[in-house]
Amino acid sequence: MREREVPEPLVVEPWWRRFGSTALTLLRQIARRPLDPLPRLILADFLEENGAPARAEFIRLQVAEMDRRWGWEDKKYWPERERALWQRHRDEWLEGLPKWSWCLWGGLVEGVAVRTPKLWRAARQQIDVRRVSCDFRDFDTLLKNLELLAGVVYLAVTGSQLGVARLRALVQSPSIQHVAVLNLLSQRIGMEGVLVLALSPYLQNLTELILGWNGLGDAGVEVLAHFPSLEHLTTLNLWWNGVGDAGAEALAQSSRFPRLSRLWLGFNRIGTAGAEALAESPHLQNLTLLDLGINRIGAAGAEALARSPHFQKLTYLSLNGNQIGDAGAMALAQSPHFPALARLFLGGNEIGDVGAKALAQSPYLQNLTELELEGNPIGAVGREALQQSPYLRQCRVRL
């Protein structure tokens, strides 16, 4: 996204005032480029050198998770060290702020969850609000206060369903033009809502579009695949949308997403043909994450993915609950086409000892740090092979 216009004076929480003008300059750089990890790492170095090593470490840990979080996740799922730092220093870092639902992202207080425009305005007096989770009971109220979106780069609409008419009013407003992450999870906008998004002239800065649980179906995905203004999109989430092979094929054939790196297609109806289309697509060669969990790709679908030369950058692959069996596991184990793969999820796939042994004996999987195999009928022979594998010594295997 282009540089964000920073509201002046820049409002920061009280904790930062002890570090003077240098910290303020660094925070302003982050405010201009809130999705860029580099200014945050520079800030962490500054803190390390100026007596705040715990906050520096916390920022670095959170920066490493920036592309996998939205900011309001349950902190019990944070890694142990990150959670320990937060629990020890939370009161210090948030001193002077009201006890609201603040968004922690990239190591900083980035935003707030709000139910009323009054709270939203009050939050802008406390911090530079860049991320907002909006749970208005009456979304007409939101439409009457769209000026509050100025400077917001992440917008989540939660709670009551927005509806197509209100969605149209929202995305036809210039106020939304700086939003880079639009989260419409479970708003049930359907294909009509996708058409509304497609016709908006103000979504050219979108890098992440989250449309899970929206009843899009194949027809909605086909419309999405022809969006004219999504060339900057890096993340697309289409969980639980009734997407079948036709929708997967539309995505595979689309050249509209040249920067797409994370594609979430879990909990749909994609079968072998859809998996084959995705595997054969040269337009998906920049993917680092592919989630096909809880679909219907079967062994043949897994074999198609394993044959693909287009997934060289993939670090995360989820095929949970696809009935790929031993044959699918063997195909993945024998594939040389996943050199960057670090996290592989194969839970609930009817994989037995034969598939487990193939995974254990694969030199192509030696870069794995996480292997999910829960819910498979793996017996003592397969378990021992995994435990003794010379290629999985640095990998956390869950059985």
CATH fold-level label of one domain: Leucine-rich repeat, LRR (right-handed beta-alpha superhelix)
Mean pLDDT: 95
Q: Tell me the overall shape.
A: globular
Work out the radius of gyration. 22 Å
Unreliable sequence segments: none
> What's the count of strands?
13
**In this structure, how is the largest beta sheet organized?**
13 strands, mixed
Q: In what range is the share of β-strand residues? A: 5-15%
Summed up:
With 399 residues, this protein is an alpha/beta fold. It contains 15 helices and 13 strands.
Describe this protein with a few key phrases.
399 residues; alpha/beta; Leucine-rich repeat, LRR (right-handed beta-alpha superhelix); 13-stranded mixed beta sheet; Leu-rich_rpt; GTPase activation; repeat; GTPase activator activity
Please give a structural write-up.
It holds the Pfam family LRR_6. InterPro entries: CHP02996_rpt-companion-dom, Leu-rich_rpt, Leu-rich_rpt_Cys-con_subtyp, Leu-rich_rpt_typical-subtyp, LRR_dom_sf, RanGap. GO terms for molecular function: GTPase activator activity; small GTPase binding. This is TIGR02996 domain-containing protein. Keywords: GTPase activation, Leucine-rich repeat, Repeat. With 399 residues, this protein is of the alpha/beta class. It has a domain at 270-399: Ribonuclease Inhibitor (Leucine-rich repeat, LRR (right-handed beta-alpha superhelix), Alpha-Beta Horseshoe), CATH 3.80.10. Helices cover 36% and strands 12% of the residues. It contains 15 helices and 13 strands. The chain has helices at 20-32, 37-49, 53-63, 80-93, 117-124, 139-143, 164-171, 190-198, 217-224, 245-253, 272-280, 298-307, 325-333, 353-360, 380-388, and strands at residues 102-105, 108-114, 131-134, 154-157, 181-183, 208-210, 235-237, 262-264, 289-291, 316-318, 343-345, 370-372, 396-398. A 13-stranded mixed sheet has the order 1-2-3-4-5-6-7-8-9-10-11-12-13. Helix 12 (298-307) runs parallel beside helix 13. The chain starts with 19 loop residues before the first helix and ends with a strand. The model has no long low-confidence stretch (mean pLDDT 95).
